[in-house]
Write a structure and sequence with these properties.
The complex is a heterodimer of chains A (127) and B (173). Chain A has 127 residues and is mainly alpha-helical. Chain A is 78% helix and 0% strand. Chain A has one domain. The longest helix of chain A has 30 residues, at 97-126. The relative contact order of chain A is 0.20. Chain B is an all-alpha fold and 173 residues long. Chain B has one domain (19-164). In chain B, 69% of the residues lie in helices and 0% in strands. In chain B, helix 2 runs antiparallel to helix 3, helix 2 (61-78) runs parallel beside helix 4 (134-172) and helix 3 packs antiparallel against helix 4 (134-172). Classes of the chains: A mainly alpha (127), B mainly alpha (173). At the A-B interface, helix 4 of A face helix 1 and helix 4 of B. Chain B: One of its GO terms (cellular component) is membrane. Chain B: InterPro entries: UPF0220. Chain B: It is found in: Membrane.
């Protein structure tokens, strides 16, 4: 189902996301907003690591789900951090409002690309 | 199970699904993040140029204590295995595991409630009583909201994990 068009579309969206974030940093000569990129790159990692660390098929063993839950908790933490960080910087007059809007939108595009990429191509890896 | 119902409306079926508890855990993380960054926002705002209080008012360690208490309480509450709370009725628990679990849980809830109450105390004693105006008042109000969000996140995580227990139980039968 996921062909070459999906890859091209996703890479376009990823490029637009990076463009927005870099623009928000370079346009105002203030490179604090690049932290958003780091946040969204780190965000899928806890789920991935904790998914490897536990055995989801084991229903009787309750110790495995705690690790998965911790990974999901951290993921939720990082996703909101990507929105909260520019808002925090704007509220304390470290960056301008335009930089805040651009970095939030760009960060969401980047994270959406990562998530939809794993959604599209995860099924084929398992078989 | 339906014949033992107490209320007129049945519990909707989606409450026990695995997706709901996944969403609950994500939401708990999001709420905790929101609370955490509200607290950071207060600290950054107190050091920024916008903080125009004339005798300068800054965040000190006193403002951090409620947040630390709340986070510790959340850690304690959610690191307890919930199935041990009713463990006395089963045979595999010796030496009063449920009693210990309830004691630790009580300490956790006390820490959480103490954090929220402490943030209100700081707001009243440090900011309201001395008649500060709005931009300075935010340092206290934000702290209260942050602690409330941490408490809410803890509650959501608790409910989500209990949901998971029932789901696993139904599946194991």
């Amino acid at each position: 189902m996921a062909g070459i068009k999906t890859i091209i579309g996703l890479s376009f969206i990823l490029a637009i996301g990076f463009l927005l974030v870099i623009l928000s940093a370079a346009l105002y000569k203030n490179y604090l907003t690049l932290l958003v990129v780091a946040t969204y790159v780190v965000a899928p990692l806890p789920n991935w690591i904790c998914g490897r660390a536990s055995n989801p098929d084991d229903f009787m063993e309750s110790s495995g789900s705690g690790v998965i839950d911790f990974g999901r908790f951290l993921t939720g933490f990082f996703v909101v951090m990507g929105i909260a960080l520019p808002a925090l910087l704007y509220h304390s007059a470290q960056i301008y409002g335009g930089a805040m809007v651009m970095s939030i939108i760009g960060g969401l595009l980047i994270y959406g690309t990562i998530i939809s990429f794993t959604l599209f191509f995860q099924e084929e890896q398992e078989f | 199970m339906s014949s033992h119902r107490l209320f007129r409306f049945p519990k909707p079926a989606w409450i026990n699904s695995a997706n709901t508890r996944t969403a609950g855990v994500y939401a708990a993380g999001a709420l905790f993040s929101l609370g955490f960054y509200l607290m950071i926002d207060c600290a950054v705002f107190s050091k920024s140029a916008l903080n125009g209080s004339d005798p300068p008012v800054h965040i000190t360690f006193v403002d951090w204590i409620p947040g630390i208490c709340s986070a510790l309480g959340m850690l304690v509450i959610n690191s307890i295995d919930k199935s041990r709370l009713s463990a006395d009725s089963f045979s595999y628990s010796g030496n009063g595991v449920a009693w210990k679990a309830r004691l630790v849980l009580f300490l956790g809830f006390a820490l959480l409630a103490g954090g929220l109450a402490g943030s209100v105390t700081v707001l009243v004693l440090k900011y309201v009583v001395r008649d500060y105006i709005w931009p300075t008042l935010w340092l206290g109000v934000g702290n209260v909201i942050a602690n409330g969000l941490v408490m809410l996140s803890s509650a959501v995580l608790w409910v989500a994990q209990n949901m998971e227990d029932e789901y696993t139980y139904n599946l194991a039968l």
